Amino acid sequence: MLQPSTLKFLKDLKKNNNKPWFDAHRPAYEAARKDFEIFVQSLIDGIAKKDGDLTGLTAKACMFRINRDVRFSKDKSPYKTNFGAFFNKGGKKAMTAGYYFHLEPGKIFIGGGLYMPMPPDLAKVRQEIDYNLKDFKKIVQGTKFRKVYKDLDRSDEYTLTRVPKGYEADNPAAEYLKLKSYVATIQMSDAEVTSATAKKKAIEAYEVLMPLVKFLNGAVG
Predict the structure, then answer these.
(1) Nearest Cα to 216, choosing from 184, 177, 182?
(2) What's the confidence (pLDDT) of residue 92?
(3) String of b and e for 13-45 (b: at least 16 CB within 10 Å)?
(4) What local confidence, expressed as pLDDT, does residue 186 receive?
(5) Which long-range CB contacts under 8 A does 21-27 form with residues at least 24 apart?
(6) Distance between CA atoms of residues 21 and 32, nearest Å
(7) pTM assigned to the model
(8) Taking a C-beta distance cutoff of 8 angstroms, is the pair 215, 139 a contact?
């Protein structure tokens, strides 16, 4: 579980997103980040018992920086108002499918998959789905997956209006071939993430996601 003080820091940061305030509250930031690191490490160690690709992975290798890259953004706020971690084979910089945890008060979610892969990897995933549609559907239409995640994320930003070039419009896998990301997420409340059951709920959700992660990594690997 995460400490309520960690969420409080992020709430306060959202109201005071500037360097002078951050510098004055650096001890609170360091305490909150350490709390998040400990929690993330417990998740990695938990799912690694089922997914051996995560064995030996450290939270530090998976956590994103709090500083924002403002070079090409109209929003010049210097800091993110969330903590995030992506744990997969190789750490957050590896271009493979994996598991994600997003901590932002009121907008907490967990899940994973393969987010906006580069064109060559996306082509490999689509080809694998086309060749092995039956196996893919067993994963994303399976009882456990449906119960936890309902479906893959089909937001407009992740979905083409037509099947990609090289595939017929009536391809049986068309609804999956249109996707540009293969991710699934569920929400958690602030109360849930600070409760004693937070770790258990997250790990169970990741275990349900694992067959999808393995399928996607088998395609791009």
Answers:
(1) 182
(2) 67
(3) bbeebeeeebeebeebbeebeebbbebbbbbbb
(4) 97
(5) 22/78, 22/79
(6) 15
(7) 0.93
(8) yes
Give the type of residue at 119. P
Q: What amino acid occupies position 65?
A: R
Termini Cα distance of the chain: 34
Sheet holding 83-88, edge to edge: 83-88, 98-103, 108-114, 182-188
The residues of the chain scoring below 70 in pLDDT are: 92
Overall residue count recorded for the chain in this entry: 221
Residue given tokens 């992975």 in the structure block? 57
Q: Where are the alpha helices (DSSP H) in the chain?
A: 4-15, 19-24, 26-48, 119-131, 133-140, 143-149, 174-177, 190-193, 198-220
Q: Which amino acid is at 204?
A: E
Instruction: Give residue-wise pLDDT tens across range 98-140.
Output: 999 999 999 999 999 999 999 999 999 999 999 999 999 999 9
Q: Please state the separation of Cα 216 from the chain's center in Å.
A: 14
| Cα–Cα nearest to 137, from 154, 152, 155 | 152
Strands (E), 140-190: 182-188
Strand partners, 109: 102, 187
Q: Tokens for 42?
A: 């417990």
Query: Do the strands 108-114 and 83-88 form a parallel or antiparallel pair, or are they unpaired?
Result: unpaired
